[in-house]
TrEMBL record:
Pfam families assigned: Na_Ca_ex (PF01699)
Protein name listed in UniProt: CAX5 protein
Keywords: Antiport, Calcium, Calcium transport, Ion transport, Membrane, Transmembrane, Transmembrane helix, Transport
Main location: membrane
Entry's family note: Belongs to the Ca(2+):cation antiporter (CaCA) (TC 2.A.19) family.
Source organism of the structure: Symbiodinium natans
PANTHER family: VACUOLAR CALCIUM ION TRANSPORTER
């Protein structure tokens, strides 16, 4: 099976998408990646509808054909933990010590923030291994929806139940964090991918225009259009409650009712999204993938995934530690807001904790002339946060009796609307180059400066 076949991920199931993401782990850990087939690369930029690409066997990797199943657990653990992120685990006990011994909120926040970076990576790795081992698309889709966003979800829960912040500040931090997660993927990650992908040395014919030196990268639009349509729907679900609250001076209970009903509708859209990909159009999409296969190509065998019990054990341990660390982080937010605007903290700083590893991988894919994968990670991640984590936050607030609504405020709503609009316009031709990336990064920088200078409690 050739690399061009692997890259057609718009029709890939969640199980295949998890396999694709395993290459992201290998790539970000420093293992060599398989080079692009120049003759097929124009077909190789299909974009996955969900957030994570399929694993590609690494060139020269010890996990290629002939690997022994008896040593797969050892090899899998080596692949996961032989990473620069492992060194950051030292901040886990340091963050706990800072919270327990009261070193101060600033130290507690910084140490636990850094500690979340490796924990998010290892939790994602364990989830991928379990999804591949189970070999069930429906289960893989559920794992992707839950554990794929567990850091954002834990920050949401721990912030909403924090007793050190008033209700208004809790909901403000949560809304800004979710907004920031969407923006960082749509603008920063996609912008960096387009910029560095457009400036790196050309490696394939598909990445070169007719004029020498004018490099462009191509990606298929099917997955992008579907994901962007979902994001526009989410923008509408944010804008309508905001206009309802700001324009009509509505009662607080009426706004809560509208937001909770809207959250259920958005969640149902995500469920429909999964059903569309996993069941109703599964064979149609798979047939499209079959059409891109290279006949007679030699298939590579991947390393077997970790044993189910080992993946489950790793998930449980890392989840418990992540919950503790995120709790320390959220309890220290109130002490940090004196030096940093709450809106800037939530929108710009906190989203880094759960997405840093994927951000680096997306940029690496673009630099390797694989723009479809970079687009799939950035746009797919934004879609998943908007469709799943945002309604999750409203429902959790409902359960905790915290007035979490879909009223994101006029500024936040305008920011997300124009960001989605900018991305739709720049991606409408299915091509990317460095100028598009530069514009996206400028937009993100402008938004960061805006939130840094917002007065307190402006939403």
């Amino acid at each position: 099976m050739t690399f061009s076949h692997y890259l057609d991920a718009s029709s890939a199931s969640p199980q295949q998408l998890y396999q694709l993401r395993r290459q992201l782990r290998t790539t970000s850990s420093g293992f060599p990646a398989l080079p692009l087939d120049s003759e097929k690369s124009e077909k190789s930029s299909e974009v996955p509808l969900l957030r994570d690409p399929e694993r590609v066997p690494s060139r020269g990797s010890k996990f290629s054909k002939g690997s022994s199943t008896s040593t797969s657990n050892k090899e899998g653990l080596e692949e996961i933990f032989f990473s620069p992120f492992t060194l950051l685990l030292v901040f886990v006990p340091l963050g706990a010590m800072s919270a327990q011994r009261e070193w101060g909120d600033s130290w507690t926040f910084v140490l636990n923030f850094i500690a979340l970076l490796p924990l998010a990576k290892f939790l994602g790795d364990a989830t991928e291994e379990l999804a591949v081992a189970i070999k069930n698309d429906a289960v893989a889709g559920m794992l992707n929806a839950t554990f794929g966003n567990v850091v954002e979800m834990m920050i949401t829960v721990n912030t909403l139940r924090s007793r050190k912040m008033p209700y208004e500040e809790r909901t403000s931090v949560v809304k800004c964090t979710l907004l920031g997660s969407i923006l960082s993927n749509l603008l920063l990650v996609l912008g960096m991918s387009f910029l560095f992908g457009g400036l790196t040395q050309v490696k394939s014919e598909a990445a070169t225009s007719a004029v020498a030196g004018e490099k462009e990268q191509k990606f298929a639009m099917k997955g992008v259009i579907m994901s962007m349509g979902m994001l526009v729907f989410c923008c509408m679900s944010f804008a309508l409650p905001t206009l309802f609250a700001q324009g009509y001076q509505s009662d607080a209970q009426d706004l809560l009712d509208v937001s909770r009903f809207g959250a259920l509708l958005v969640a149902s859209a995500y469920i429909a999204f999964l059903i569309f990909q996993l069941f109703s159009h599964k064979h149609t999409l798979n047939q499209e993938e079959e059409d891109l296969k290279d006949e007679g190509a030699e298939e590579d065998q991947e390393r077997p995934p970790l044993a189910i019990w080992l993946s489950l054990l790793m998930m449980v341990v890392v989840t418990v530690i992540t919950d503790i660390v995120s709790d320390y982080l959220c309890e220290s937010i109130n002490g940090v807001t004196g030096a940093m605007n709450v809106d800037f903290l939530g929108t710009i700083v906190l989203p880094i904790a759960g997405n840093a590893c994927e951000h680096l991988g997306a940029v690496r894919f673009a630099m390797d002339d694989k723009p479809g994968l970079a687009v799939g990670i950035s746009v797919g991640s934004s879609t998943q946060v908007a469709l799943f984590v945002v309604p999750f936050a409203v429902i959790v607030g409902w359960m905790l009796d915290v007035p979490m609504t879909l009223d994101f405020g006029m500024i936040n709503t305008a920011v997300i609307f124009f960001s989605v609009l900018l991305v739709v316009v720049l991606m409408s031709d299915g091509r990317s180059h460095w100028l598009k990336g530069y514009l996206l990064m400028l937009a993100y920088t402008f938004i960061a400066v805006l939130f840094w200078n917002l007065p307190p409690k402006v939403m």
